[in-house]
Amino acid sequence: MYYYHPSIRNGFPRVGESLIKVNGEGELAVQPDSASVNLGVITEEKELITSQQQNSQVSTKVINALVSQGVSKNQIQTFDYRIESDYDYEQGKQIFRGYKITHILQVKIDDLSKIGKVVDTAVQNGVNYVSNVQFKVKNKDAYYQQALNLALANAIQKAETIAGSLNVTLIQTPSLVVEGGAPVQPFSYQPEIMVKSMTATQIEPGQIIVRANILAEFHYT
Q1: What confidence tens digit (pLDDT) does each residue in 105-119 have?
Q2: What are the tens digits of pLDDT across the range 178-219?
Q3: Residue 41 and residue 58: Cα distance in Å, rounded?
Q4: CA 103 to chain centre
Q5: Residue 4 pLDDT > 70, yes or no?
Q6: Would you place residue 92 in the very low, low, confident or very high pLDDT band (cuts 50, 70, 90)?
Q7: Model pTM?
Q8: Does residue 67 contact residue 122 with C-beta atoms inside 8 Å?
Q9: C-alpha–C-alpha distance, residues 3 and 23, integer Å
Q10: pLDDT per residue over 37-68, tens digit each?
């Protein structure tokens, strides 16, 4: 999208209106270098204390198994913990079934080759819920600045094209640049799945697209 302001009115230049306004877009494909995944332990028992104890035991087993695979405890944190009452409904009547305990751990992973192994290990040790696998880049600001440079170059190219079509001389240094847009959005591999058994899980990181957008104004003569 661009805006062109005519510069002549009654034979005289209109001050401040000899402008070409353009949107510049920059896009960069980046290989992710870190990831996170939510691993959940869900237990259901008639008695609350029994369900809590069972959930705690399984969660501890999962954490210990992940640590044995080289995941630091600092990279494991509780993302969510819920206690819910479960009910069945028979002939319009609510019948108490028991308690459901949900403990979701968020695990951060620096070595992307180990994502599948982390998920498999967790499932083998009692995890029955996997969700929100996200791939990220650590140095996102540096990549965003590269995309920003591409956006500015794109804006200049657009302005040159417009100036050439109008047969005017473009002043290539923009008089105004306004930054816009979101720098980096983490890439989610999957929404959520319930897990009963899983072996040799293959999770591919793909690429993250870093985008930058600007609005630029150029004077011309």
Answers
A1: 999 999 988 899 999
A2: 998 555 555 555 444 445 444 567 777 778 889 999 999 999
A3: 7
A4: 23
A5: no
A6: confident
A7: 0.70
A8: no
A9: 9
A10: 999 999 999 999 999 999 999 999 999 999 99
User: Cβ(39)–Cβ(130) under 8 Å?
Assistant: yes
Q: How many CB atoms lie within 10 A of CB 105?
A: 21
Q: Domains in the chain, ordered, with CATH?
A: 2-31+140-184+212-219 (3.30.110.170), 34-136 (3.30.70.2970)
Region of 167 (left: φ > 0; alpha: ψ -120 to 50; beta: rest) is: left
Burial class (CB in 10 A: 0-12, 13-18, 19+), 140: middle
Q: Rg of the chain over CA atoms, in angstroms?
A: 28
Q: Quickly tell me which residue has 């028991």 as its tokens.
A: 98
Q: Sign of the CA dihedral 53, 59, 63, 69?
A: positive
Report the 3 state secondary structure along the chain: CEEECCCEECCEECCCCCEEEEEEEEEEEECCCEEEEEEEEEEEECCHHHHHHHHHHHHHHHHHHHHHCCCCHHHEEEEEEEEEEEEEEECCEEEEEEEEEEEEEEEEECCHHHHHHHHHHHHHCCCCEEEEEEEECCCHHHHHHHHHHHHHHHHHHHHHHHHHHHCCCECCCCCEEEEECCCECCEECCCEEECCCCCCCCCCCCCEEEEEEEEEEEEEC
